[in-house]
């Protein structure tokens, strides 16, 4: 048992010590006047002398000073490093303090203090900077003489000062030299971090403005943005009837103008945006409120950012387009009206896609030219066909076809009706094309083709046409999926892609959830083919409307000929450009929607966890003392840790034998001793609850043992302890988060020198005490929280996307729960949620944390201003920071305002006090002094809540002319009755389903009824067999379920033996008994699983019937029977299908398939080379032959040649993998050649001709005998050939086995004259 001291020895804080020294110096300095504006650190006279001598000494010993510079930092840097627990050796230097004009605050009225927030002096980094009086003319000579005696000659001091300033500048740069950028960034020690800390704007807003830009705050801009956001909410979320547009305007004003964050708005500005909040946030009941995830507000913030990016991009493009057009006005072919059209489209665009359309159109018509003399433009690396046609004048001919792309777009969008009919040409297109024949376009047909291409491209880039087609496509396009040959084999009923294997014409608008992400992933893995299609009726509509507006209505011969060309243009534009472009957009849209939905589901799971309250014993508010236990297999041992109510580690106990089954007598004695130690441990520390990590089935026994120990304590000590121990519960807890903490960097900082299992156990207990703080701990710079498995598909999300959602959830819940500042100041781990408080972020939170730790505790909310918080940040954060007697403030007698221990914001203290006094007076209680009366009134309301509830709020507000503050007064009334009541849902123990999945290590996706599994027989009786699945979950196989003739089986032990592997199906999961029921009947094994939640567009049967008809001939030739074998390398396919499967795989890939020789054989097929496959026969032994099912199972022994194996895993490990290793050795050998035997012979003849005196040779693959190689060589004139066998042990050549090719080649060279032994 490892004991942790309750009060460990703590070294003096160097920062706090320095502050105390500064205070003493200030007291000593107060008796002097400062005549020259210099401030000098002087603890004693000796240091003064040393301080004056140091610069002079540096002149004489430059080397020593250089050495000091290499290992010294600025004093403030040392403080920052100490606060961040950085390891370093500090060297003390006394030096002149900077005393510039900016540091000297001239203020003759120092005593005129004001409580107004704007008059607080905030500068955390300015340690020891004082307000001093500037030296005035006319000071008496005595003061000057005294200053000279004290400081020396002023001119000499000025020289030393200049040198010292230069020295300090070098020292300040040393921190960047000693620590890398990663360390500085993680510790928030960069210059950018300092700027964020100092600026009085909420930190998250600063980060957002860096990325998305600063929002305009004028009335017209806010009105325009609110209109855009409202349209998006209605279009994308369907919130038309729920959201008030005026509330969006007010939200944007609060957010951008007043710099108020979402938690503050949701808590203290409800009246201004009621429609954006959950209706239950402002009910009239007295029931306990619940935490609310303000999704609409976060949606508006996300849309606000999108709007800023869109506006930023449009502004940049407008400037770029204007500049380009002005610089190229010398071009004769520039069309001003076209440019104005582009600008008009840019101004009207409301989405990123529409901006993309405008940009595409501009770049098409105004491309970058070649580099001019000044190098302003760069020639494109590759010229498009459109640019080539334009260069040779074909674009001019394209304009002869009739209406322009812009005119067609106006007509299709119904913005302008084309009233002028086309004027039909008086010559054919070919005749007109003759005028444009050139070297690049040599005949009229080439000219026509180029002109059609130009017209089609311009149509496909027209903004209005794309908008028209986009509306039809996104509303009506359908998606179909079908498996590839590989996918048809791989995707079974339980595969993650099974639900999307066969989709037929599912409309884009019907895709919900994350289904598209699965389709996209399957397509990337080449398991699915995905097709997009626009139904025929909609295609006909598009073509018809385009023809109506683009073709000539003339009936002449020439009109018809030109119309044929126009039809070709439209077909090329629609099918060649527009539809592929729309498909690309559709894919992007589906991905965006699916990710948004997945992010929402991911966030909801996290919200459910963080919005769950801590464990509470008998509804007590006190935080419980937790005994946390993590099971260990022996190394490490099962570990118990004791945590006090603040989550601090008190004691550790190791009990490795407690949960083991130990038949040996000595082991039983050791187990008994551990039980006694645990009994003493529990008796000494008296925990309120025991948290046991649920990881496997051994935890069931461990839980029973803990309860057994607790019952023994009660029986032994009797009635005196019954009340304390009889209610102790052992609750299971999830170890997934504690394991992340165990391996995180923050755990090493918080619990140094502790082994991993102790860190895990501490996290387990702390999660029970304060889940919000424990989760926040992993939200540091390393973002370990992203590794927490919250959703089965979360890997589809980018880390930045996930953390943005994590931050959103954590900010919302943290501000609704609040933070006890004084308690956190005494216990570091409780500070972790501070970064999510409104107005804060990791930088401002760490700065406040350091300041509060140095101060120890605070007693008034307004004191926070003195700890580096600006006014705007204070306004955002104040209501969420709880000030009460906790931590080091418990023993203080200093007054604490009761309102500081409520969610009431300081801005509402006046109304709250007035309300309390009115209730107090209404009850007829005599008042004392004014201040005492307020305090007594608040205490009275808290003690007598019924008095407050009797007030009719509407009438009271009318009497105070505060009708528009109803929500604020509701909050005041609730908080006066009970400040910071926990709104989170009560702690809920893990249910039976969660326990089952934790103990088994499986998930709903990996184990379920109907899944085929392999099980190992552990015990057999006459009526049933007890098996173990791969996850160690026990399974029961009865003799009736063993085969279809199970009733005829008298004794199951005659069929199965211990150690047998059986392939079976799960028919039932008994979660309460932690076991599954299995079946091996052939009739059950062949049944398909019918899932309840099937997509209405899923049509597997029809698709399968089509495939059966298509592949009917190959299936008729199939000469094997399917096998009941579950293994990653096994597939029920023919030799032809196996060859097709391996065709695009790497050399050396292998597959096991049924053999055409019968049910006692298997075939191992290995890809030797392209189109060369070796088949190795596997003979099965020790098989039951009672029925077809037993014959379809794999044999107990497997034999290849003379080698015997127990299972397919051993075949792969001992046979296939070594054989492939030697195969790759041969292919990568320097003498290996590729080609047929005759081609290799020709290569050797050429080599022989170059080196006639040498024997040339080479190796190549044998196509006639797959699995062997040919050694070809020429001694004199004719080539000779010998075979080399490929085996797991190496290469067999002339009846000898070689493990190394160099040795084989050496043997061949030495014995080239021996008689040849051909490989048989």
TrEMBL record:
Protein's job: Transcription elongation factor that enhances transcription elongation by RNA polymerase II (RNAPII).
Database matches in SMART domains: S1, YqgFc
Protein name, as recorded: Transcription elongation factor spt6
Localisation: Nucleus
Recorded name of the encoding gene: LOC104752994
Pfam families for this protein: HHH_7, SH2_2, SPT6_acidic, Spt6_S1, Tex_central_region, YqgF
Region of interest: Disordered: 1-76
Biased composition annotated in UniProt, kind: Acidic residues: 21-33, 42-52
């Amino acid at each position: 048992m490892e004991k942790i001291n309750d009060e460990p020895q703590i070294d003096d804080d160097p920062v706090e010590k320095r502050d105390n020294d500064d205070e003493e110096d200030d007291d000593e300095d107060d008796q002097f006047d400062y005549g020259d504006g210099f401030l000098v650190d002087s603890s004693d006279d000796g240091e003064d002398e040393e301080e004056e001598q140091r610069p002079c000494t540096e002149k004489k010993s430059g080397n020593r000073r250089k050495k000091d510079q290499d290992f010294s930092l600025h004093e403030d840097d040392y403080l920052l490093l100490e606060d961040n627990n950085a390891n370093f050796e500090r060297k003390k230097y006394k030096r002149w303090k900077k005393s510039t004009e900016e540091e000297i605050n001239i203020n003759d009225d120092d005593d005129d203090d004001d409580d107004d927030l704007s008059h607080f002096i905030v500068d955390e980094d300015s340690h020891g900077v004082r307000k001093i009086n500037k030296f005035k003319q006319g000071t008496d000579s005595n003061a000057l003489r005294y200053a000279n005696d004290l400081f020396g000659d002023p001119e000499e001091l000025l020289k030393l000062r200049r040198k010292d300033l230069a020295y300090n500048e070098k020292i300040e740069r040393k921190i960047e030299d000693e620590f890398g950028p990663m360390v500085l960034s993680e510790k928030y020690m960069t210059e950018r971090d300092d700027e964020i800390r100092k600026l009085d704007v909420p930190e998250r807003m600063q980060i957002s403005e860096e990325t998305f830009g600063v929002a305009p705050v004028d009335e017209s801009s806010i009105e325009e943005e609110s209109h855009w956001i409202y349209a998006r909410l209605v279009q994308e979320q369907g919130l038309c009837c729920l959201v008030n547009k005026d509330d969006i305007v007010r939200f944007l004003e609060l957010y951008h103008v007043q710099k108020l964050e979402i938690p503050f708005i949701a808590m203290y500005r409800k009246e201004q945006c009621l429609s954006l909040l959950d209706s239950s946030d402002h009910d009239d009941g007295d029931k306990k409120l619940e935490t609310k995830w303000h999704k609409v507000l976060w949606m508006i913030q996300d849309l606000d950012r999108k709007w800023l990016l869109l506006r930023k991009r449009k502004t940049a493009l407008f400037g770029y387009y204007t500049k380009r057009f002005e610089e190229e006005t010398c071009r004769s072919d520039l069309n001003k009206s076209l440019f104005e059209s582009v600008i008009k489209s840019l101004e009207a665009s409301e989405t990123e896609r529409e901006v993309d359309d405008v940009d595409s159109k501009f770049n098409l018509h105004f491309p970058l030219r070649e580099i001019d003399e000044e190098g302003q433009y760069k020639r494109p690396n590759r010229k498009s066909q459109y640019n080539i046609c334009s260069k040779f004048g074909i674009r001019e001919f394209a304009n002869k076809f009739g209406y322009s792309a812009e005119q067609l777009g106006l007509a299709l969008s119904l913005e302008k009706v084309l009233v002028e009919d086309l004027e039909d040409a008086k010559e054919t297109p070919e005749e007109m094309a003759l005028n444009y024949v050139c070297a690049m376009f040599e005949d009229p047909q080439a000219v026509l083709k180029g002109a059609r291409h130009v017209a089609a491209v311009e149509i496909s880039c027209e903004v209005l046409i794309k908008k028209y087609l986009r509306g039809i496509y996104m509303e009506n396009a359908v998606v179909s999926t079908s498996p590839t040959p590989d996918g048809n084999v791989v995707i079974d009923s339980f595969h993650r892609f099974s639900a999307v294997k066969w989709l037929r014409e599912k409309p884009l608008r019907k895709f919900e959830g994350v289904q598209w992400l699965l389709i996209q992933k399957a397509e990337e893995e080449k398991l699915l083919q995905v097709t997009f299609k626009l139904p025929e009726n909609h295609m006909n509509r598009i073509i018809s409307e385009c023809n109506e507006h683009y073709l000539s209505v003339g009936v002449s011969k020439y009109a018809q000929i030109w119309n044929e060309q126009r039809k070709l243009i439209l077909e090329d534009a629609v099918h060649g450009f527009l539809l592929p472009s729309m498909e690309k957009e559709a894919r992007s849209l589906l991905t965006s929607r699916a990710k948004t939905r997945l992010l929402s589901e991911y966030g909801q799971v996290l919200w459910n966890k963080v919005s769950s309250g801590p464990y509470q014993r008998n509804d007590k508010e006190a935080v419980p003392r937790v005994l946390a236990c993590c099971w260990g297999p022996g190394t490490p041992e099962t570990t118990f840790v004791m945590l006090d109510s603040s989550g601090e580690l008190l004691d550790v106990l190791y009990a490795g034998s407690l949960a083991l089954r130990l038949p040996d007598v000595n082991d039983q004695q050791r187990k008994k001793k551990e039980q006694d130690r645990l009994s003493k441990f529990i008796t000494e520390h008296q925990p309120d609850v025991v948290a046991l990590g649920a990881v496997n089935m051994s935890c069931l026994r461990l839980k029973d043992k803990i309860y057994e120990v607790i019952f023994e304590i009660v029986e032994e000590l009797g009635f005196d302890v019954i009340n304390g121990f009889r209610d102790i519960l052992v609750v299971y807890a999830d170890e997934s988060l504690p394991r992340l903490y165990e391996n995180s960097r923050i755990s090493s900082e918080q619990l140094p020198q502790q082994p991993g299992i102790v860190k895990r156990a501490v996290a387990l207990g702390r999660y029970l005490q304060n889940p919000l703080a424990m989760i926040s701990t992993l939200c540091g710079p390393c973002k370990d929280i992203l590794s927490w498995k919250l959703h089965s598909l979360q890997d589809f999300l980018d880390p930045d996307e996930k953390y943005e959602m994590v931050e959103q959830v954590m900010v919302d819940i943290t501000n609704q729960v609040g933070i006890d500042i004084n308690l956190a100041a005494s216990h570091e781990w409780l500070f972790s949620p501070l970064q999510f408080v409104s107005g804060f972020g990791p930088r401002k939170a760490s700065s406040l944390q350091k300041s509060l730790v140095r101060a120890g505790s605070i007693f008034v909310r307004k004191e926070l201003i003195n700890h580096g918080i600006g006014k705007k940040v204070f306004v955002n954060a104040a209501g969420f920071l709880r000030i009460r007697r906790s931590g080091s403030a418990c023993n203080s007698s200093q007054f604490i305002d009761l309102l500081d221990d409520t969610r009431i914001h300081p801005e509402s203290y006046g109304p709250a006090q007035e309300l309390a006094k009115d209730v107090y007076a209404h009850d007829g209680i005599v008042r004392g002094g004014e201040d005492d009366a307020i305090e007594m009134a608040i205490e009275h309301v808290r003690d007598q809540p019924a008095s407050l509830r009797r007030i009719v709020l509407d009438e009271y507000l009318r009497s105070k002319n505060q009708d528009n503050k109803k929500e604020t007064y509701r909050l005041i009334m609730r908080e006066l009755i009970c400040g910071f009541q926990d709104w989170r849902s009560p702690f809920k123990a893990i249910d039976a389903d969660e326990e089952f999945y934790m103990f088994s290590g499986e998930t709903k996706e990996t184990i379920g009824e109907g899944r085929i599994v392999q099980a190992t027989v552990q015990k057999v009786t006459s009526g049933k067999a007890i098996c173990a699945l791969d996850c160690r979950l026990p399974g029961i196989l009865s003799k009736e379920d063993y085969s279809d003739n199970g009733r005829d089986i008298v004794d199951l032990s005659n069929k199965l033996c211990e150690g047998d592997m059986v392939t079976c199906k799960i028919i039932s999961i008994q979660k309460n008994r932690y076991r599954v029921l299995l079946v091996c009947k052939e009739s059950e094994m062949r049944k398909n699983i019918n899932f309840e939640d099937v997509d209405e567009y899923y049509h597997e049967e029809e698709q399968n019937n089509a495939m059966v008809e298509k592949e009917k001939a190959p299936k008729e030739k199939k000469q094997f029977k399917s096998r009941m074998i579950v293994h990653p390398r096994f597939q029920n396919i023919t030799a032809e299908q196996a060859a097709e499967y391996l065709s695009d795989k790497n050399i050396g890939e292998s597959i096991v398939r049924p053999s055409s020789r019968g049910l006692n054989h298997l075939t191992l097929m290995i890809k030797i080379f392209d189109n060369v496959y070796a088949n190795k026969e596997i003979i099965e032994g020790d098989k039951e032959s009672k029925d077809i099912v037993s014959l379809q199972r794999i044999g107990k022994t497997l034999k290849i040649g003379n080698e015997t194996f127990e299972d397919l895993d051993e075949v792969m490990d001992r046979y296939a993998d070594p054989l492939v290793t030697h195969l790759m050795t041969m292919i990568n050998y320097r003498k290996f050649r590729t080609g047929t035997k005759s081609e290799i012979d020709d290569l050797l003849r050429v080599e022989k001709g170059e080196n006639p005196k040498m024997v040339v040779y080479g190796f190549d693959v044998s196509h006639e005998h797959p699995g062997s190689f040919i050694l070809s060589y020429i001694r004199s004139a004719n080539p000779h050939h010998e075979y080399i066998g490929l085996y797991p042990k190496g290469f067999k050549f002339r009846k000898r086995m070689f493990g190394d090719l160099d040795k084989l080649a050496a043997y061949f060279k030495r014995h080239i004259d021996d008689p040849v032994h051909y490989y048989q």
